[in-house]
Amino acid sequence: MKKLDGKVAIITGASQGMGASHAKLFVNEGAKVAITDINEEKGTALANELGDQAIFVKQDVSNEDDWKNVVNTTTDKFGKLDILVNNAGISVNKSLADTTVADYMKIFKINQLSVFLGMKYSVPAMKNGGSIVNISSMNGLVGGAIGYTDTKFAVRGMTKAAALQLAHSGIRVNSVHPGVISTPMIHQGDSEAVIKEFAKAIPLQRVAEPEEVSKMVLFLASDDSSYSTRSEFVVDGGLTAQ
Q: Which GO terms describe its molecular function (predicted)?
């Protein structure tokens, strides 16, 4: 039996990178998946690749009406909702002094507000309990870029607050804290040399592949983690343990 047989999931920011990796693994493990993203071309292509077990819904994760549509579309298509993976996120590589209010609000809306909205509108559809996996970051545990760190700490806090409120409903809420993962987010501009040098500081001496995070997300989405809630799961090669 596959780990997610009979389960229905929503995964945000899933057209590429870690989100796409999560979607592929979930489908391979038997789930039906609603892939959401602002990138319609890549999201549609991935849903077509995954076949009848996946649909694509275009979504601005910071938009309340879009969240209502995603949940309604998912439950209309697949009949229920068991899993939410709040994966969408961005980072703006600017100093504190150079970060504008517009920059900051964009990061806040995509990284933090989206998680609140996702939980708010998904929970009523999880009538038989479920699992919410909020993707934070190692920068939700230690300092990093302004805006990105702030919002990833907030995701960690929201996870704990929601887990306490939702436990009586049989809904588990956990956060995942990836370290340096080989995704389009870290391959912006001329970053290869910087990443290669930084990898030397990681105890495991390498950058992770998205699939390594996906396996943790799968564990938390599945019944294998049935007694885990309000917890932080770190996938960083030992970086924050130093």
A: oxidoreductase activity
